[in-house]
Amino acid sequence: MPAPPHLAQTLRSRTKHFRSSSRSLFLAVLVGVTVGLGAVVFQFLGHLVVRFSLVQYAGYAPPEATGEGTPFTHPPTTLVPWMIVVVMVCGALVAGWMVYQFAPEAAGPGTDAAIDAFHNQHGKIAARVPFVKTIASAIALGTGTSGGREGPICQIGAGIGSMVAQRLQLSPRDRRILLAAGMGAGVGALFRAPLAGAVFAAEILYSDAELEADVIVPAATSSVIAYSIYTQSLPPEVRFQPLFGIKVEHAISGPLELIPYLMLACALIPVGIAYVQMFYGSQWAFERLPVRPHVRPAIGALFAGIVGVGFYYLAGQQMSALAVLGSGSGTLQEAVHHSLRLGPPLLIAIALVKIVTTSLSIGSGSPGGVFGPSMVIGGCFSAGLGLYLHDWMPNLAPHPEAFAIVGMAGFFAGVSNAPISTIIMVRALTGDFGLLVPTMLVTTITFGFGRRSRLYRKQVPTRMDSPAHRGDFIVDVLDGVQVRGTYRPIDSYSLIHESMSLDEIVHRLADNHQHYFPVVDADRNMVGIFTDDDVRSYLFHDAIWKLANASDVMTTNVVSVTPDDDLNTALGHFTALNLEELPVVEDHQSQRLLGMLRRRETIATYNRRIREHKEGTRE
């Protein structure tokens, strides 16, 4: 017995949905596997470059976070500080040549380029970009460039997702989703925070409190797969540890302890603004240097190296001072667990000098990220401030190390406009879940006051502002807005009686700027309409002016609207028939004329509604 028609249709719909879901899951898994392997290669190349550049020639093995899990054992060496500058310049020269020769899109941080590809490039990233970004970033970061791995892995993951989508000839929407899923997979794997990676991919695209909802599930799937593959490449002893080592639980014992964190938030806002301004000021200056772009990263590395090594000597040759170069993750871990060993002046100085070296390094076009430096800046500055607050008010700030953890999240949330994923990520990096309330307080404040000065300038405010969603929000904007409040009453129009002679009509047109002329009967019911163009065809036939009347000129095929119709319907008539005005009648049966609706005023209402939607003021 055949299934009823409605049941058969339901079964077909469910089968289609199942196939679509299965395909999306398969593609997300495929992207996760590829990005996970890419993260393993990227991390290994970075350690390889460190071993045979900084360690080999400068005797410097940058301290790393416990969970990094380097595959190399560094031999005993003697530090030669100024050789660090030489190695940095050579590395930046090679990386700069690779980037600008083969993939100029891979220059700089990388996250902004991925965001731009999502919004403005239909999800397309050239296939060469992830390969060039992997090698060039490993060289630049491995030779001491003050940058992070988040930007490169974002662009690498986004490039892989885009490449998979293009090879399978997917739609622009699917390309964008896989691009974002690749971003989330890269971040989730490298920072061992798959949930944070998924939310980051959906949140980082917008500067307002907005999420790309379609991205979350595919990005979560990709992140889990990439994370699982990446962690298998780590030594067993650190495989399931947080990146910053042993878990430490802090907690607050009362609401008064939030006061020092409120002071921390107020202090982080100007530091974040200074960081963004200096970064883009440096980028502006380097773009105007009269040299080939290929050598700009080397110039930036030279100045950054001089600043970093000079700071090392000014700080009394403390190894922690070299955190202003490279990733600085080892020093950041010390700030999280043992900030008292470093002391407040050195911690705050590291944060401020790190702003300079990162701006010189990444602002010059060297491939690297800004997330890692942001963590060091926010963490070290907050740890130093926490020590001061502990001295001033020990009862309200009993755990100064906790300020480093909260400050990392608060600072990056303020400069990146990504508060939710940042909270999740910092919790995963440290394993500390006891500071959720102060972290939410600080990130909310820095996000609210730091939004005008954002690190990722390719972000758009909301989905309505994204070219990726152009057309998604225009269909229903005028639904429910009635013609009643927009049309012009008929009193302001010159009406034509159906019996009026053509001679009278011509003379009336001479003194009238009206374009559309409704024709009515004795009861003011509309029987037709004509335009001044219709009358002009008779101007050279004055012999028939006395013979013809309005009925001979008008058209009876009139499209009209009523006051209860919505403007969406009217706009459809305007567009389909290429009209500038529509008659407004009491009802379609009587055709009693009430006024005229103009296209210009309908468009003005539409624009006003769009502004209200954007500003959140729609009634």
Automatic annotation (TrEMBL):
Q: Name the CDD domains for this protein.
A: Voltage_gated_ClC (cd00400)
GO molecular function of the protein, one example? chloride channel activity
Q: Where is the CBS domain?
A: 487-547, 554-615
InterPro entries in UniProt:
CBS_dom (IPR000644), CBS_dom_sf (IPR046342), Cl-channel_core (IPR014743), ClC (IPR001807), ClC-type_chloride_channel (IPR050368)
Main site of residence?
membrane
Organism, as annotated: Rosistilla oblonga
Report the subcellular localization.
Answer: Membrane
Q: Which Gene3D superfamilies match?
A: CBS-domain, Clc chloride channel
Entry GO terms, CC: chloride channel complex
Which residue windows are transmembrane per the record?
A: 24-45, 79-100, 177-202, 258-276, 297-315, 370-390, 402-426, 433-450
Q: What is this protein called?
A: H(+)/Cl(-) exchange transporter ClcA
The topology of this chain with respect to the membrane is: Multi-pass membrane protein
Keywords, A to Z, come to:
CBS domain, Chloride, Chloride channel, Ion channel, Ion transport, Membrane, Transmembrane, Transmembrane helix, Transport
